[in-house]
Amino acid sequence: EVSDGKGGKKKIASVDDVTPKFSRNEQLAPLRNMLRNLLKAKEISIEEEIIEGMGFGDLRDLILAHGNMLDPDHIKKCNKAEKDFWMNAQGLDLAPSEKKLNFDCGGQQWVY
């Protein structure tokens, strides 16, 4: 901690602050597992390599598409998997702006 110049303190980010607690695979595991279970129940096959290559938005879109979007229980399960992803993905990420201004905004949606 260092002085903020106004009588208070502020924390300087350290390597421990920016080191992710979970790997990308661990972050995406709840969504991947839910998609695998949905596909298995519907006897649909998607190559594991394709599932492993998908990001958050693609996984969520497929989960919604392969379930009954009018079923509140399905949406609750999807929301829980998404919440688990965000809990595992939270943290501090420092990088140059050109690397931060390009991001996965969560699937097929318009951003204005």
Give the arrangement of secondary structure elements.
Blueprint: E1 2-3, E2 9-10, H1 15-18, H2 24-41, H3 48-53, H4 56-65, H5 72-89, H6 97-100
Q: Which features characterize this protein?
A:
mainly alpha; 2 strands; two-stranded antiparallel sheet; single chain; 54% helix
Compact overview of the structure:
This protein is mainly alpha-helical. The chain has helices spanning 15-18, 24-41, 48-53, 56-65, 72-89, 97-100; strands at residues 2-3, 9-10.
Tell me what the structure shows.
With about 110 residues, this protein is mainly α. It is about 55% helix and about 5% strand. The protein has helices at about 15-20, 25-40, 50-55, 55-65, 70-90, 95-100, and strands at about 1-5, 10. The protein has a two-stranded antiparallel sheet with strand order 1-2. A hairpin with a 5-residue loop joins strand 1 and strand 2. Helix 2 packs antiparallel against helix 5. The longest helix has 18 residues, at about 25-40. About 10% of the residues are buried. The mean pLDDT is about 85.
Number of helices: 6
Q: In order across it, which strands form the biggest sheet?
A: 1-2
Biggest sheet architecture: 2 strands, antiparallel
**Euclidean distance between termini CA atoms:** 38 Å
General form: elongated
Beta strands, count: 2
Strand content: under 5%
| Low-pLDDT residue intervals, each spanning 5 or more residues | none
The radius of gyration is 18 Å
The secondary-structure class comes to: mainly alpha
Overall pLDDT metric: 86
**Helical percent range?**
40-55%
Element-by-element helix/strand order: EEHHHHHH
